[in-house]
Amino acid sequence: MSESASGSTVVYLGLGSNLGDRRAHLAAAIEALGRAGIAVRRQSPLYETRPVGVVDQPPFLNAVVEAETTLAPHALLATVKAIERALGREPGPRWGPRVIDIDILLYSDLQIATREPWLEIPHPQLWRRQFALAPLADLRPDLRDPEGAPIRERLTRLRAAEGAMVWRYGADGEHHDPTHVS
Fold this sequence. Notes:
By secondary structure, this protein is α+β, with helices and mostly antiparallel strands. The protein is 27% helix and 25% strand.
């Protein structure tokens, strides 16, 4: 994972929504990314996810997109936060309900940790969250966790420890086998 032939950087962004028309919010976020010059190249299937942290809220729809950008990491962060606000995200409790959430999961092979503004890449919870790993594994089955384990092995270990937290969300809006994430 590195720079593309065009000089832009390949990034992976996690998207989530659990309020209103979740699918429409994700689609609007992907369109807004494109308008902001973040070229979405591929999108994972949608996954329905049990809430993490604050469990008394509706389930999330999650996806990961692979995109190319010429934006530097902090500019990318500012852009995705502006997109969230434009799509109706309002400040609320950590892990609470939201119209849209866009997280920078990976930015090429870059590792960064800053406090002002806060930015950590890879995303600090990436390897602990089924809702990020399941769709990311669809796009990057070759990816390995920091200990060198394949992404699908890491996902299997998380499911064994926590139970299934994510399942594929069909094009028909139906839930598919919640005990198996392909």
